[in-house]
Design a protein that fits this description.
Order of helices and strands: EEEEHEEEEEEEHEEEEEEEEEEHE
Structural class: mainly beta
Shape: globular
Helix content: under 10%
Largest sheet: 10 strands, antiparallel
Number of helices: 3
Number of strands: 22
Strand content: 35-45%
Radius of gyration: 22 Å
C-alpha cells in the first residue's frame, strides 16, 4: 500500500493529543505523552497528496475502556483536509469533541526542558504534609533523584515547559508515564510542593508539602483544604456500565457534611479509574483518590 510523506511525522492539537504517523503505523499519545493507541491505518495516498479531503481508517480506534472492557472513549473519525487533521473524539460521558491537529517538527517531548541540575540539590530531604488539622501523616521524601511518598513514588526529572519556563514540576523519569501512583505531578514552589491530579482539563491540588518550619507560614491553595472526590448521582444502572457512568458528576471538593453513607455491596473495582480496590475499610481508591461508591 502507498503512504504519504504529507501525513508521516508528528501532529498535535496543542494540549490533549499528539499523533505520530510512520507509514502504516499510528501512535496516539495523551496530554501526559503516554501512549493511548498503537495501531495500523489505511487511506487513499493519492487523494491525500492532492490535498483532497481524505478519511483515515484505523484498525483500532478505542482510546480507553472500562474495566469490564466496554468502550469509554474513541476516535470516531480521523480526516486529513487542507494540511490539517480533524479528529472527532467521543467520550461516553461528555459526548463528541472535534480537535484540529497540525503537523510539527520534532517529537512529543520537544516542549519539555529538563532542569535536574538546577533543582535536585535544593529539593533533597523531608517535606511534611499540610492538613487542616495541622501537621499531617505520610511526609514526602526526596533522596537524590527519587521521590518517596505513601501513595507512590519513583525516579523523576525536574522539568518546565518552553511555553511556561517559570513553572517547575517533578514528573516521572519515564516521561511516557503519567503519575507516581496517586497524582499526576508535583509542582515546585520556593516554599512548598503541591501534588496535583489532572481531571479532564483541570489540575486539582491534592496535597501540600513544606519544610517542617514552614508549615504555619505557607499559603495553601483553597482547593487543597478539602479532599476531592467523585460525587455520583444515584442511577438504576451499576456505576461501571455505560448507562451508570452517565450519572458521574464532575469531580469537585465537598465537605464531610455532604458525605454519602456507604450502602449496599462494596465494589471490587473503582468506578472512576477501574483499578482494583483494597480489601480493607478504606473509603477512597488508592490510585485516583475517588470515593468508593457502594452498589
Amino acid at each position: 500500500m502507498k503512504y504519504s510523506d504529507k501525513l508521516n511525522g508528528f501532529w498535535e492539537e496543542g494540549y490533549h493529543y499528539y499523533l505520530e504517523f510512520d507509514n502504516e503505523k499510528l501512535t496516539v499519545r495523551g496530554y501526559d505523552r503516554g501512549i493511548r493507541i498503537e495501531t495500523t491505518v489505511s487511506y487513499d495516498a493519492d487523494r491525500l497528496d492532492s490535498e483532497e479531503r481524505t478519511v483515515i481508517d484505523l484498525e483500532n480506534n478505542i482510546l480507553s475502556r472500562t474495566y469490564e472492557g466496554e468502550m469509554m472513549s474513541e476516535i470516531k473519525e480521523l480526516v486529513y483536509e487542507k494540511g490539517e487533521l480533524k479528529m472527532l473524539y467521543n467520550y461516553i460521558i461528555m459526548g463528541e469533541t472535534l480537535y484540529t491537529l497540525t503537523k510539527q517538527d520534532g517529537g512529543p517531548f520537544r516542549h519539555i526542558i529538563i532542569r535536574d541540575d538546577e533543582y535536585i540539590d535544593k529539593l533533597q530531604g523531608k517535606w511534611e504534609k499540610w492538613s487542616s488539622n495541622g501537621k499531617g501523616n505520610n511526609p514526602l521524601v526526596i533522596k537524590n533523584n527519587t521521590v518517596f511518598w505513601a501513595g507512590g513514588g519513583g525516579r523523576f526529572h525536574v522539568v518546565s515547559y518552553t511555553y511556561d519556563r517559570e513553572s517547575v514540576y517533578i514528573v516521572p523519569e519515564d516521561l511516557t508515564k503519567s503519575d507516581f501512583g496517586a497524582f499526576t505531578n508535583i509542582r515546585v514552589y520556593p516554599d512548598k510542593l503541591t501534588t496535583t491530579m489532572m481531571v479532564c482539563d483541570m489540575s486539582m491540588p491534592l496535597s501540600v508539602f513544606a519544610r517542617e518550619d514552614m508549615l504555619d507560614k505557607i499559603e495553601v491553595p483553597s482547593a487543597a483544604k478539602q479532599s476531592p472526590r467523585n460525587v455520583m448521582m444515584y442511577s438504576p444502572y451499576p456505576p461501571q456500565t455505560p448507562m451508570g457512568m452517565m450519572g458521574i458528576g464532575m469531580m469537585h471538593n465537598v465537605t464531610g457534611s455532604d458525605e454519602i453513607k456507604p450502602e449496599g455491596k462494596r465494589p471490587v473495582y473503582c468506578a472512576n479509574c477501574g483499578c482494583k480496590l483494597p480489601e480493607n475499610d478504606s473509603k477512597f481508591c488508592q490510585e485516583c483518590g475517588s470515593e468508593i461508591i457502594y452498589n
